[in-house]
């Protein structure tokens, strides 16, 4: 069943109805999927609540639906993971966003680290990229039936992570020169937590001083195994291992 996100103010639970007024969604429902009155949609408010809704009326500006049922989304991990991703070259960031949203990331923050080749020219260029990246996140959230739409935040400098490091119970930073401590060991030693940050380097990885800087914030350098992973693979692997170890992927 197709999933769509709507704003909370478009959901009138007391009246058992909701409205879809996003032009792209209206076009997709009516022109691409060719759905009609009486067809059923899966709707989410982006805050872990979802609805089964029956189409009542379709016009060019709005689709009105009757709410048949509502429930709390079961697709969200209990743990909140933020990915700090050093910006890679080309379109790799798009793949990273798409797959990490599918896996279960909460937020993605693009980072400029020392070995980043990709550059953001100006605010206008950044705004254009963020619009594209957040659209990819939205589409991935629909496809994977997420209960939220993970946000891709504004680009920050690597050193700026220190300012928000205290927001996280655990910070993990995969590093190719770490060969003894893995994510599993760190999770067992660190106890219970609600918010985890994962910091991933660009194509050239991290410089040693960046790792030392992160350790000063409280970050834990870890190995992802004996093979060197690409930047577009490392975050996905790290998230997968964390969620598996915490019982979210692959069952308890």
TrEMBL record:
A GO CC annotation recorded here is: cytoplasm
Per the similarity annotation, which family is this? Belongs to the RNA methyltransferase RsmE family.
GO MF, one annotated term: rRNA (uridine-N3-)-methyltransferase activity
- Species lineage, top-down? Bacteria, Bacillati, Bacillota, Clostridia, Peptostreptococcales
**Compartments, as annotated in UniProt:** Cytoplasm
Q: Where is the Ribosomal RNA small subunit methyltransferase E methyltransferase domain?
A: 77-242
Task: Enumerate the SUPFAM superfamilies for this protein.
Answer: alpha/beta knot, PUA domain-like
This chain's protein is named Ribosomal RNA small subunit methyltransferase E
Per the database record, which ranges form the Ribosomal RNA small subunit methyltransferase E PUA-like domain? 22-68
- Would the keyword Cell membrane be found if you checked this record's keyword annotation? no
NCBIfam families in alphabetical order: PRK11713.1-5, RsmE family RNA methyltransferase
What is the native source organism of this protein?
A: Caminicella sporogenes DSM 14501
